[in-house]
Amino acid sequence: MKKIEAIIRPHKLDEVQEALSDAGFQGLSVSEVRGYGRQKGHKEVYRGTEYNINFVPKVKIEMICTDDRLEKAVDIIIKTAKTGEVGDGKIFIYDLKDAIRIRTGESGEAAL
């Protein structure tokens, strides 16, 4: 099993979620996060005063999938979240030792 963490632009969330759902991926967790990478924030002007926004708002998607469906999930996220501009985000993939469904006690892929 693998854990996928994807940090994407907030306005792309619905599109990514819908594409993953259409492909049969069932579980998804979403968090609002703020940060910066190469983009290094941006500047905004409010009432004539310029402000540096160091931490850009993003959305972090977390999902678990089987090893054989990993590539499909990553491809969907890339295709739907990509704008081609700096700040599109990153995808991180982790090996997952186990998963346990609290309600039934099922573990491994059966818990997904």
UniProtKB/TrEMBL annotation:
One of its GO terms (biological process) is regulation of nitrogen utilization. One of its GO terms (molecular function) is ATP binding. GO terms for cellular component: cytosol. The keyword Phosphoprotein applies. Keywords: Phosphoprotein. PROSITE patterns: PII_GLNB_CTER, PII_GLNB_DOM. This is Nitrogen regulatory protein P-II. InterPro entries: N-reg_PII (IPR002187), N-reg_PII-like_a/b (IPR011322), N-reg_PII/ATP_PRibTrfase_C (IPR015867), N-reg_PII_CS (IPR017918). The modification O-UMP-tyrosine is found at Y51. Coiled coil: none annotated.
